[in-house]
Structure formats: structure tokens, C-alpha cells
Design a protein that fits this description.
Number of helices: 11
Helix content: over 70%
Radius of gyration: 20 Å
Number of domains: 1
Number of strands: 0
Largest sheet: none
Oligomer: single chain
Strand content: under 5%
Shape: globular
Structural class: mainly alpha
């Protein structure tokens, strides 16, 4: 039986009780290490030139790689919270850098490339609209392709929402296998996750209106809730992680 969203949130709060500090600290350090370079480059790069624009894209991509590696570390902490009441040190936020960075980057790239592919029709129609002097036909086609791109982006995000949890539980799977694994787990669960994500809109608005201060509470809560969702889906599909299999063999 699938666990309801309110119950997932209740479980997340329970597992975070008295342990918010580690996730908040991990989030703060990751934010500082990525936002400060981003601000520096945004003020020093001249994006009006081709070289500056290419450098800006390169820096953004590298920072996204770093954010994803940090995300895996935060997921690792949340999984340990969900599976044990033992304290987890902040140092576990570096989990993704311990021999896993290349695998995480490749997985992210395969994930990201799918968004780019779905962007091609819109980019092509928009270019035609601008180059042809804004004709109505290209305008309509650009709008249709924009709607298509948005729908496919949402579908892609839902299909691969679990890859950076799976990479922790299934260390022997290749990046391609992780993406396939996530798609299989998300069959019949996309609507659940979309509803769960939408239920946090009010909290994100609260964080916005508090100039980001509320995010120090909202982020651990949402990350832990998505961890609970992952564990519920994995349990529903009755899939045993490779790490658990090894542990059973040893015992």
C-alpha cells in the first residue's frame, strides 16, 4: 500500500526531530561553495562577447555538477536518518566526492542531455520566428513547441527523480542503468511525486518572503520528505539494494 503524502511528511519530521542541524549545515556549506563563485563570475564575465558567454555557460555547468555531488551527499545523510537513529556527522556531506564524483557527473550529464533534446524543437521554431521577421506561423509553432518542451521537461524530471538516491543504494549500477532503474520505479508514481512537490509551494513562497531565511528549515524538511518517498517507492517495488545484498551474504 502506498504511503500518503501527509504520512510521508510526518515520517520526515519524525526522522528530523533533533537532527535538523546536520542537514542545515550541509546545505549552507554547499550553498556558499557554489553561490560565491557564481556571484564572482557573474560580476567579472562580460557575457556580451562570445568568449564571455561560453565561459558563463561552462562555469554554470561546473557549478551544477558540484551542486549535484553535494545533493548526493545530502541524500546520503537523509537516508541514514531514515534508516537509523544513530547520529550522522556533517562530514558525510562529502560522500559524493569519495570516489563517486565521476559517476555522479556522468549520470547528471545523461539526465541533463534529455532536457536539451526536448528543447531543440522550441529553439528551432524560435530562431525561425526571429529570423523570418516574426511571421504568425513560426509564432504558433514556437508556442506549441514551448508547451511540448514544458510537458516533457516535467515528465523527464519525474521519471529520473530518484537517480541520486539510487546511486547511493546501487553503487554497482552504471549511469545508464540508474536512469532506467528510476524510470521503472516511477511507473505509477509520477502523479504522487508531482502532487508531493506541488504541496510544498506554500513553503517555498514562505522562504522567498523571508529573504531565504526560512529555507534553512524548509530545505531539510523537503529533502527528508523526498527521501521518505524514495524509500516508500523502493519498498513498494520490492527491490533490494546491492549494499543490502552484500551485507546479507556476509552475515
Amino acid at each position: 500500500m502506498k504511503t500518503s503524502s501527509p504520512q510521508l511528511k510526518a515520517d520526515a519530521r519524525g526522522h528530523l526531530t533533533g537532527r535538523y542541524g546536520v542537514v542545515i549545515t550541509a546545505y549552507m556549506i554547499a550553498s556558499l561553495l557554489t553561490n560565491i563563485p557564481s556571484l564572482i563570475f557573474s560580476y567579472t564575465l562580460n557575457t556580451r562577447t562570445l568568449a564571455g558567454s561560453l565561459m558563463d555557460v561552462s562555469v554554470t555547468l561546473i557549478l551544477n555538477f558540484l551542486l549535484t555531488i553535494f545533493l548526493v551527499g545530502q541524500n546520503h545523510i537523509c537516508l541514514r536518518y531514515a534508516r537509523s537513529s544513530e547520529p550522522v556527522p556533517v562530514a558525510e556531506m562529502w560522500y559524493g566526492f569519495k570516489g563517486r564524483a565521476d559517476e555522479i557527473i556522468i549520470t547528471y550529464f545523461l539526465y541533463f542531455i534529455r532536457f536539451l533534446l526536448y528543447s531543440v524543437p522550441f529553439i528551432a521554431m524560435l530562431a525561425g520566428y526571429l529570423l523570418a521577421g516574426s511571421p504568425v506561423l513560426f509564432g504558433v509553432l514556437a508556442l506549441i513547441s514551448l508547451i511540448f518542451m514544458t510537458i516533457m521537461w516535467i515528465r523527464t524530471e519525474l521519471d529520473y527523480a530518484l537517480i541520486f538516491f539510487l546511486i547511493i543504494d546501487f553503487p554497482n549500477e552504471s549511469p545508464g542503468q540508474l536512469l532506467k532503474h528510476s524510470r521503472e520505479l516511477m511507473k505509477g508514481n509520477r502523479g504522487r511525486l508531482f502532487y508531493l512537490q506541488m504541496s510544498f509551494i506554500g513553503m517555498y513562497l514562505l522562504a522567498l518572503f523571508s529573504f531565504g531565511l526560512a529555507m534553512f528549515w524548509v530545505y531539510p524538511y523537503t529533502r527528508m520528505t523526498f527521501t521518505e518517498f524514495y524509500m516508500d517507492v523502493k519498498k513498494e517495488k520490492e527491490i533490494t539494494p546491492a549494499t543490502d545484498t552484500v551485507a546479507e551474504a556476509v552475515s
